[in-house]
Amino acid sequence: MKLVLRDLLFIFCAAQTIGVRIQSDPASSGGVIQTELKTTVSLLCQPEGSAETETDEELVWLRNGVMVSLKDDNKIGRSSVCVTPVIYEDNEATFTCHLSNNATRRASITLNVTYPPELSGSAEVSVEDSADLILNCDIWANPPVSSVLWTLNGSEVDLVAGRFTVSNDGFTGRLSSTGIERSLHEGVYQCTVVSPMYGTFSKYFQVTVTEKTIKFPLMPMIAGIVVVCLTSLLAVVARWRTFVKVKARVLLG
């Protein structure tokens, strides 16, 4: 009798132990889907159990912990989510599906969105003599670029002679210099990056060093002109009053 009860209890527990699984297109590997920008990712969540293959369990989707809004006919038994088009913000987004009545029965999948750096074309830069030169190169990519190279007129920039500073924060590569001189800094600059997945990308900068212009403080000049105009106007008014008074005396005398 005890053996029969134990067997029945085992069968009951097995029937209640329902997990979920996620199928994806493109297929995942180790819980990660490799995809690119402007593509489509389809996810399908289904309950699974050792004692039954079909169920009326309600399913819930989360994106980075936030519930995804689903239609009523996309919740019971099986539920699908479509990500289209894939955008930058979808990179490293984790989609989780779980049973509505048991959140511990869940499965998750993460997107790894790859994209090249947006680096191309050319730009014209005009800088006054003795001013500061700053050139920015957009290197944001996934996977990150493996190298950033700056050249001037076809040769790698001389950091010491040109007093250049190079920085890279993973998003922007920057070349800068202070107190620039035409003989040292004018010319064609090239920023070149190498992506381990997408290859080489470059952008050109035509830098022209112009003569230094004398800049006058605008606001003090305006204030000075206003003061001069008001003073002149008051002087004219005072003289006019004096003239009127003299003329009146003459007429009365």
Automatic annotation (TrEMBL):
Membrane topology: Single-pass type I membrane protein
Pfam families, per database record: Ig_2
Main location: membrane
Protein's cellular compartments: Membrane
SUPFAM superfamilies on file: Immunoglobulin (SSF48726)
Start and end residues of each Ig-like domain: 26-110, 117-210
UniProt record, GO biological process: cell-cell adhesion
Keywords, ordered alphabetically: Disulfide bond, Glycoprotein, Immunoglobulin domain, Membrane, Signal, Transmembrane, Transmembrane helix
GO terms assigned for molecular function: cell adhesion molecule binding
Signal peptide residue numbers: 1-19
A single Gene Ontology CC term: plasma membrane
SMART domains attached to this UniProt entry: IG
Domain of life of the source: Eukaryota
TM spans (from-to): 218-240
PANTHER family per record: IRREGULAR CHIASM C-ROUGHEST PROTEIN-RELATED (PTHR11640:SF31), NEPHRIN (PTHR11640)
Protein name in the entry: Transmembrane and immunoglobulin domain containing 1
Naturally occurring in which organism (per UniProt): Cynoglossus semilaevis (Tongue sole)
